[in-house]
Amino acid sequence: MDEKNEATREIVRRLPTADREELLRLWEENFGRPASPGLRRSLILPILAYRIQERVYGGLDPESERRLREAVGKLKPQGTRRAEKAQAFKPGTRILREWKGQIHEVLITASGFEYKGETFRTLSPIAKRITGTHWSGPAFFGTKRGSR
Prior knowledge:
Shape: elongated
Distance between the termini: 59 Å
Structural class: alpha+beta
Largest sheet: 4 strands, antiparallel
Number of strands: 4
Strand order of the largest sheet: 1-2-3-4
Number of domains: 2
Number of helices: 7
Helix content: 40-55%
């Protein structure tokens, strides 16, 4: 076995014990850009292992890539979160939330969510405006599926 193969195997073998700082350094080295800050370790490890091996041994052959793209194209699109939200509430619905002794009212419109005369695409920026910190809007307002 040549040195390049052995070095690659050793790097991939060490990935599970590497600290986050090392993983992020390897990510940037192999992808040419920083990893997304919210990317979990459980996702970083297999993606990084694949990328390191891909750079050394080569990626998929063009026929395999074509077949994968074809298979993906045949998959049924899943419902989006926005579509699920649109089905959950009809325009005209009012959502009330008490926060620190004050009642906050959001009106659901055909174009989004209205709060204090301003329209928002999602509930999260409204929750942030109310609390001053990042919140999941559906969690803050109690509209998240299964939260009742």
